[in-house]
């Protein structure tokens, strides 16, 4: 499974820069992008603004790396699940639903909702480097569903439509869990997704 831009743009960080990134990531996610300034990030990281700029160049670049790091962690989680499925019976339905299987663990640490959606709401400029990461992440997930469904034997058009349905279910679970405080959301959409995929394969 490829990781597109997140793999190509992986940034090697010094321990000090990693500390800044960890602090900034928590602040961006908990308080919002525009509410958090460089002064706050530097102060809570225990560094000067000059050090922060020396390490990352700008707040926008720090934001981009924050989003890429989240993206990489998510993709790695899905990839690990897929590898576990492949090590067993490699059931095509379970492979296609790997993102749903790992969603409960992801939501456990994401009680403020999807970091990509949250950031998207604050970045109206399509050309913003952070925006590009966000769009790529959602398109990657849709493509993941599509490709696994094709591998399972569904024709391209059917797989494409079903991939959009699975993406919508998946994203809806994140919103329901965070905002409606619905603890059953992840399991509910997993069950619904399994029903949809099983029915599509039965009709093929």
From TrEMBL:
Which residue intervals define the domain HTH tetR-type in the entry?
Answer: 14-74
Gene3D superfamilies hit by this protein: Tetracycline Repressor, domain 2
Keywords assigned: DNA-binding, Transcription, Transcription regulation
Q: Which residues bind DNA?
A: 37-56
Q: Name one Pfam family in it.
A: TetR_N
Name of protein: TetR/AcrR family transcriptional regulator
């Amino acid at each position: 499974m490829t990781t597109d831009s997140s793999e190509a743009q992986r940034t090697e960080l010094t321990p000090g820069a990693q500390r800044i990134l960890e602090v900034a990531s928590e602040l961006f996610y908990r308080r919002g992008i525009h509410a958090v300034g460089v002064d706050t990030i530097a102060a809570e990281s225990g560094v000067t603004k000059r050090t922060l700029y020396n390490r990352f160049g700008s707040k926008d670049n720090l934001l981009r790396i924050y989003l890429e790091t989240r993206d990489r962690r998510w993709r790695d989680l899905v990839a690990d699940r897929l590898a576990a499925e492949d090590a067993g019976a490699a059931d095509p339905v379970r492979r296609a639903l790997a993102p749903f299987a790992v969603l409960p663990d992801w939501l456990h640490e994401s009680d403020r909702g999807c970091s990509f959606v949250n950031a998207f709401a604050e970045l109206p400029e399509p050309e913003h480097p952070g925006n590009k990461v966000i769009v790529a992440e959602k398109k990657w997930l849709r493509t993941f569903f599509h490709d696994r469904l094709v591998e399972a034997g569904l024709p391209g058009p059917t797989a494409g439509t079903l991939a959009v349905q699975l993406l919508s279910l998946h994203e809806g679970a994140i919103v329901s869990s965070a905002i409606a405080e619905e603890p059953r959301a992840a399991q509910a959409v997993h069950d619904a997704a399994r029903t949809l995929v099983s029915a599509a394969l039965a009709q093929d």
